[in-house]
Specification:
single chain; about 280 residues
Length: about 280
Amino acid sequence: MKERLKNKMPYIAVSIFVLLAFFTIVGPHVMHSSPIDQALDEVYQSPSAKHWFGTDKFGRDVFARVLHGGRVSLMVAFSSVILSVLIGVPYGLFSGYLGGKVDAVASWILNLFMAFPQFLLLLVVAAILGTSSVLWVVLVIGLLSWMDIARVVRNQTLSLKERDFVLAEIVVGISKLRLLRRHILPNLLAPVIVSATLMVGNVILIESALSFIGLGVQPPTPSWGNIINEGRQVLLDGWWISVFPGLAIVLTVLSLNLLGDRLQEVLLTQKLVKIPFH
């Protein structure tokens, strides 16, 4: 029974995430409610047939705000992770492949960044630069979150360049650029995909935390974090304002982590792929 449930968990996780993503992307286009329209005669209404997730202190529909906020939070998460991958993969690849003094200096820089608590570093940078727009939030998170990807890629590259099929290609005189592109990079896809998948959930939590304390996405643009912040002062009487975006965060992060764990089991246990040399 436990084994059957374990095998089904990845499919459940994917289904949950797909449903959440579908509603956050498509929902705002088919709904008549706006996340910023105020109705002062409908403030703090509890969940009902008219307002599924209730309303907030301005009479705004919380369901509409959660859907729009989900779109913003997911966009920030995926954009930040893509930016981190674009920085971390080349950094780790060349650090691991070139080795020697280049790797020593690159590793020192990497360790220096990783010595600081990531969230504390994000807080400092966000407080100094300000994050008045979604683009700024993406840049701040992405530019300060590439280290884990770089470390994974560096460690994998150090291992890959000592493999027999790589050494054989070096003997026949293949260029370094071709070797990296055709033999090492394809074998880095699995660990990068796993790391990026797990990282998306982490970034959603980071963005939500920054928005919650006022350093992330700024109102009136909704995000899950700032919606929760708006409801923290009325947790007893207006519990729905914080509970529903909180549930959305929990379900999204949980589904992504379960998916990442399954990908780790499947992809990272496969044998390395040797791309034929032409």
